[in-house]
Design brief:
This protein is mainly alpha-helical. Helix content is 40%, strand content 5%. The protein has a single domain, classed as Transferase(Phosphotransferase) domain 1 (Transferase(Phosphotransferase), domain 1, Orthogonal Bundle), CATH 1.10.510. A hairpin with a 5-residue loop joins strand 2 (26-28) and strand 3 (34-36). Belongs to the protein kinase superfamily. CMGC Ser/Thr protein kinase family. CDC2/CDKX subfamily.
Length: 193
Amino acid sequence: MYQLIKGINHIHSSGFIHRDLKPANILITQQGEVKIADFGLSKAINIRQNRMTPGWITLWYRPLEMLLGQQEYSQVVDIWSIGCIFSELINLEPLFDQDKNYDMIVSIIDKRGFPIDWEGMNNFSKIEKFNQWKQKQKQSIKLISRNLCDQGNDLLDKMLDTNPNKRITARQCLQHVLYKIIYKFIQKKALFL
């Protein structure tokens, strides 16, 4: 995960959004290096024109804001996808595996809660369909990621925040305590090799 996040941080720092992160687009070399593939849907971020097509990103890895049709989005859409991949690696099954937008929205709200603190939520024409879900609280991330340490759960929780304005960035992921702990462990282990 660290290599994937480091790679996406480089892509984001270069002014791009990948927009199609999924397991099939993550390659691992024989030396164990992670390579991000398939930039066919990637998009340069243009400050003057940030309206984009909301239908990109494979459905299982598409964040709530895109499912609702938001055309102005940022690089944190890639972080949602990485969170879904992270969960899939931990649980050995996709977190969200519905085949239709509506079913995906319902599944996301069911597992991650309704983003009542996101001002942009009221701008969507589809929102009336989901009024019944407004009281749905976010499940504990531990129900989603049963086999993860507390620091890993915290990182995953921040990656899968349904409020895109609160979702963690790639740079923040790299600075997360989980990777600080892993880095210290690797450094200690290297002393004994």
